[in-house]
Amino acid sequence: MPREILIIDDTPEDRAVFRRCLQAETDYANTFVEAETGEEGLQRYFDHRPDCVLLDYQMPDMNGVEVLEALREASPFGVFPIVLLTGVASQSVALQAMKLGAQDYLIKGQAGPEEVARAVRNAMDRTSMLTILDEQRRNLEAKNAELERRNAELDQFAYVASHDLKAPLRGIATIANWIHEDLGAQLTPEIAGQLKRLSGRVSRMEGLIDGLLQYARVGRVLVPPERVDVGALIQETIDLLAAPKTFHFVIGPGMPAIVAERLRLQQVFLNLIGNGVKHHHRQDGQITIASEDLGSFYQFSVADDGPGIEPQYHQKIFTIFQTLLARDKMENTGIGLSLVKKIVEEQGGQVIVESPPSGGTTFRFTWPKSSRKDTHANVE
Predict the structure, then answer these.
(1) Of 65, 184, 192, 335, which is most buried, counting CB atoms within 10 Å of its CB?
(2) Which domain of life is it from (predicted)?
(3) Domain 2-138 falls in which CATH fold?
């Protein structure tokens, strides 16, 4: 394999020694470029771009570290396949050279052919690896910057779209209410029913827009972690629901306090508990919320005594826009459970559903004890 080596050394005898060391190699067909001064060496380097450089530390015009500094100034992000040659074992010089991009150093008079060949191979291998890593880092930084830019654009678009889409919906709802208020007594049952359905469609569209925005923001919009009393959070969530007064909620004992993204955890409970109320076939149903310690995670369960979910829907219900009942029978966006799944999995957890033939449905999901964004937070 052909390989070009640049030797920068003001002593012809030393250059000859290193040439002979490398000519003894059988795996490479080495060719050599030589320079007697640092200035000449820099010119040779930029003219030839050699595979490796043997660079003497002591030269009349500039030392090896100054050559490295000049290379670094010309190529701020470059990685150089350079082996520094020194007459004495100076760790400070070697360390300074390595910081500037040299890959290895040798002490003159103590390095034989094998050591020289190994140093050259290592310098070339390290340079190749570091160049690849540096290129990957630059690509990643560029992609991250582009992703941040697109996320910002998407957030702005989502906000504008939400505002622009909701404005006509509010207008439709207002007109429908005016018609009902002003002409209620004159409306036929059919027209009154159509107005009611129209209002329902408007509410569902508003819910759909809000749900899509929430779904799109998971994993992109940062929610700071905080200490959360899960029992209090569940009670607060229940209070937000417009459940019948005859409906029963049971919060199991021993609910933990964790460090979590409060809003995300509440969205999960709000959707699971809300679904249990919405799809229940009785006004006096019961939902039981419990927790279990699984080590680094807690498992929470939301169980109802409703009609249950048939097995063929156990996976489908987590798909966005999937609903069990026709929207004419029950207003539903089909986003809630897909949002639950996305939030839980973003936290590193899992969500499953269990529904035996005898009826009732239990949703179980796992949640880390400490937010992945703040694993050192204190929960005292």
Answers:
(1) 335
(2) Bacteria
(3) Rossmann fold (3.40.50)
